[in-house]
Amino acid sequence: MSASTKTRDQLQQVTVLFCGDSGDGMQLSGTQLSTTSAVYGNDVSTLPDYPSEIRAPAGSLAGVSAFQVQLASHEIHTPGDNPDVLVAMNPASLKVNLPRLKPGGVIISDQDAFNERNLTKADYTTNPLDDPTLRSSYRLHPVPISSLTLKALETVELKHAAKRRCKNFFALGLVYWLYSRPLEQSLAWIANKFAGHPLMAEANRRALQAGYHYGETSEAFAVQGSIPPAPVAAGSYRMINGNEAMALGLVTAAQLAQQALVYSSYPITPASEILHHLARWKHLDVRSIQAEDEIAAMGSTIGAAYGGAFAATGTSGPGVCLKSEAINLAVMLELPLVIVNVQRSGPSTGLPTKTEQADLLQALFGRNGESPIPVLAPSSPADCFAVAIEAFRIAVRHTTPVFILSEGYLANGSEPWRIPSLHELAPIEVQHPAEAEGVQPYSRDTSTLARPWVLPGTPGMEYRMGGLEKQPGSGSVSYAPQDHEAMCRLRADKVKRIAAFLPEIEITGPQQAALLVLGWGGSYGAVAAAVQRARHKGLAVAHAHLRYLNPFPSGLGEALKRYDKVLIPELNAGQLALLIRARYLVDAESFSRLQGRPFTIAEIETRIEELLS
Amino acid sequence: MSTAAAELTLTRKDFVSDQDVRWCPGCGNNAILAQMQKMLPELGVPRENIVMVSGIGCSSRFPYYMNTYGIHAIHGRAPTLAMGLKCARPELQVWVITGDGDGLAIGGNHFSHALRRNVDINILLFNNQVYGLTKGQVSPTSPLGTKTRSSPDGSIENPVNTIGVAIGSEASFIARTVDVFQKHMSAVLKRAAEHRGAALVEIAQNCIIFNDGAWAHLSDPDKRLENVLYLEHGKPMRFGRKQEKGIRLNGFTPEVVDVAAVGEDQILVHDERAAEPTLAYFLSRMGPPHFPTPVGVFRAIRKPVYSELLMQQVQAAQAQRPPDLDALFRQGETWVVS
After folding, report:
1. Contact residues, chain B, for A306 at CB < 8 Å
2. CB nearest A462 (choices: B69, B326, B330)
3. Quick check: A167 pLDDT over 80?
4. Which residue of B has its CA nearest to A332?
5. CATH of B3-219+304-312, one of 3.40.50.970, 3.40.309.10, 3.30.1490.20, 3.90.550.10
6. What is the ipTM for the molecules in this complex?
């Protein structure tokens, strides 16, 4: 069959899952396909899924690394529920990921890797590629990827092992042909990446092209798909993941105030990457600290905020446990700073590389005493940028520590980000009183109840403060019953008043109906898509998303009461549902998942249909 | 020192805050407070540029009584706040006030790491070998067998050696003084303040309520000359009522000798600037019953300072690369949709 006899098929979207052994380069194949498609103009959303072991035994089920990406000709918010295409580089990866493949989906497998040794490691007694059921249920394409790669690189003077490592580019090339992707972006990437290794550049280039040509010439692939560009707002774009967006947001906030950023952190999955980014941005006066432990990271963040820097720390749930006493000191000192929790599955060490939203109650209540802290949550990887800036804006305006609840899913997932112009970003105003007249350490701004951020080094305003309770105004230590009550209520009131500076709750869909689906954080995409689909089916369902978990936005209580039912999907055992029920006396129903994975659109859609039937 | 600072005419009173001192009458902390308030004006550092950071415990009430900037933080964590503050504001003079429980038990990790990083802060560790504020429990420096409310049958814990921990943490300045040694303390505190990098001063301090007399062999004027070895750089290590005794090294073991009998050239000469901390370590092991207790500066060396290196890296980065946020946004592959 010649290339010209192949048929073309225009698609609205496709979801591809690359999987293989940890060392097979699947994360790279995934990011290459994502970037190429984004540059081509598709909307793109990704979900990397990797083991917590750095090098699990080769070929084992525990060592499977995967990267899922959805490409679409329209706006999408999730990396896709179930893949249309599974690229499996070894038996273990097929075994782990096959259950997620759509019925009738495409399997491309490296048949060279399905040898007896690898089959045993994956607990297969027979070769699944010979299984007639697999052949009848899916469109199975066993391709000798390893040997074809070696053949294509025959004349390249590299060692056998180095040549074998290029097989991920062969697989990528084949997928590029399957969905009519241009090769230019990846070729440029290879040239740049291996600028110092011409042979490696040549090998990867040839592997990519060989994969592409294989698709073109092999009779096995009769249909070439294409996904036209999606209509998106004009502007400059790049791919960004949540951690990098968060790091950019933090440094941008400091720049908007023309201040240094001190970021102090202890390495922890999945938050470490924020530290890695910021450590390279010293030219923007970023002073990064790798502290000796989580507590020291929090303590040094407080010290830096006291000194007038824009100070932030980043961690994950277990780290927040350790930091909580020091966070409470920040509450007591009323210093502006930001705490990023990139949530992962708990409790304890839990599933370090898997996502969850189960630290909401910890952020709100996980400290001794009455300890109110504003809490924000980004809704997508790129949204981490805006949320980081807003967190600092709130911290500074209201002199308070602010929590950001990101998620592993957002931290590692990526999507196109419209790069903002600097003039779109409003400056953050910072005031440090220099005149003692009328200023006391704990005097209050009448509108926000913020206290003055007086910096050490200011003559004539020397004062002492600490974790002990205070007299309102002077801030002097006080054990008086009425002072303690007054200060507790002041701190609570100060956080409550933030709502007046925030947008009211926004509802998409009918303003009064049978059902409202209320979500928060990274489940935004799946919820929005599920509600949209349900509405297309004629169901009376609306969607509200909470970016602010404390204080809740104005109008939320009233809005909830306009719906017969409220459904709250979240990746925990019902934490937001508990808060909503307690706060507003609404009989909200929890839709809870604890599988270390983001919601699928389908499961939320099904739940909506069940509730409305 | 700037001209403005040189012209400062601060006095002890400028450093006294409006708070009533609430330590027990006769507590050693009072003497330390008095010496700090007396010594600080001599530094010529403007009062507003001095920050006292403390943790929890009797010692940690210190910042409230100093008319400087101050934070009374949480248990054991003062060095972490001090480090963050120095990273934000390297020009400030930052003191950490801690105790044996705050600094060596709950805050042991931070104590060690602040010293190894050589953050430019001064740590004063008031060692009274007991928990005072919680009303008398065994501390990490209490000797084996110490009977307290939490160790009624005698402590079964081996105590930690503060100076030894500091040496193990690669501290660049290590000193010891005693709460009642007014002039000595003042001189040691001043040396600590002037040291570039992390300075540790262990202050033998008497808790009059829960561990009275723990340091009597040093503080009692009658016994002092017999029991205290005053360290002075470049001077032989001599002590005794008539300076008749000295320290000699016999192989790898120090010993107390009669100076007249062995001759002064046999006596160890103190070298606080030695590149290796071997001598400081010998000294850290000395104390009753067979040796005098050394006081003064054990070690004072120049080492790269964390807070200075941090700022040098920032400045080097700024010299190399313009502070262009927009360029940072556009790193990697970008594309334009029109």
Report:
1. 71, 81, 84-85, 88
2. B69
3. yes
4. B73
5. 3.40.50.970
6. 0.97
